Amino acid sequence: MHGQRRIMVTGGTGFLGSFLCERLLREGNDVLCVDNYYTGSRENVLHLLDDPRFEVLRHDITFPLYVEVDEIYNLACPASPVHYQFDPVQTVKTNVHGAINMLGLAKRTKAKIFQASTSEVYGDPTVHPQTEDYRGSVNPIGPRACYDEGKRCAETLFFDYHRQYGVEIRVARIFNTYGPRMQTNDGRVVSNFIVQALRGEPITIFGNGTQTRSFCYVDDLIDGFIRLMGAPTGVTGPINLGNPVEFQVRELAEMVIEMTGSKSGITFKPLPADDPIQRKPDISCATKELGWQPTVSLHEGLERTIAYFEWKLSGGGGTMLSANSLHQAYPNLLLPNAGRPVSEAIR
Ligand code: UDP
User: Fold this and answer.
1) pLDDT tens-digit profile of 311-347?
2) Measured from the CB, is residue 81 less than 6 Å from ligand 1?
3) Domain boundaries, the chain
4) Residue 147 annotated among the catalytic residues of the structure
5) Torsion of CA 62, 67, 70, 72, to 10 degrees
6) Does residue 191's CB lie within 6 angstroms of at least one atom of ligand 1?
7) What residues pair up with 172 in beta bridges, in sequence order?
């Protein structure tokens, strides 16, 4: 890679952002990690703080930011329904004002800018699997709209800045992604099921569990980000990034119970309003334009994620699995505190 680019990652202490910062540092770049810690956590980047090329800035992107950068990855926004619905107005502001501020910064510095868009732009889709040219079926006044319409408006802004000002943009539509460093209270289905199974609590299936999702392991997704950002000028996206293998939510529950050896039962709860019934990416565009496709199966990704939550729930290195043994078993996990004294990592 080229090295020594100054790259800003908004939402850099979050689940995806922290893995991205790590990858960019490994490739020899300077990384400015920007976060307001709404759902991000300093713990996710503790292991990077000693790197002189890494800098963390507490900042909310709904306010302007004046820095000098060569590339911007705009990942900032709570992504779990429970979190983005907690303060819906702030979610819209993060997506819309945040995009305007970051695009303005890209325009001034002539930086290339990446937008973390979402499969939620397709709403509750009537086309299956979802292709990029499908325009979606979003309820503009429902509880998910703050996120869905916010992200749709951000896409609009990205393409308008591109057409009007020549800003170089990259728009990825991210499908359900999971892995280590999701918060135990993240609220999304993979982390919920694993945490419930490990605690011996009932697994909460919303609806009857026949709704589908396609789950992508975090390493695969980050690889897609890097490829999209590195794609030739003119490749703007939007481009779907996700794992095209589709599962019913109840199949996921069964897998998690079996893999954790849990005695948890299943309880059924009402399906939240506007919860999409089926979701699966068509990734032929990513395969053709980026040579990208996921490599980690759900089973393999769940193994790594379960190992992470075992470690996390045991106090971050206690009786079940120490950080170092977990790191040895899964060297690619890059745990927040791998190689550090546990006492230091969980302060
Ligand atoms: N879900 C569930 N139990 C949970 C959390 C989520 O059955 O404890 C369901 C949810 O209703 C949805 C699917 O799992 O149908 C994926 O939900 P998630 O919040 O992970 O992501 P999204 O709905 O944004 O795809």
Assistant:
1) 999 987 443 344 555 555 555 554 444 433 333 332 2
2) yes
3) 6-180+217-242+278-294
4) yes
5) -20
6) no
7) 116, 239
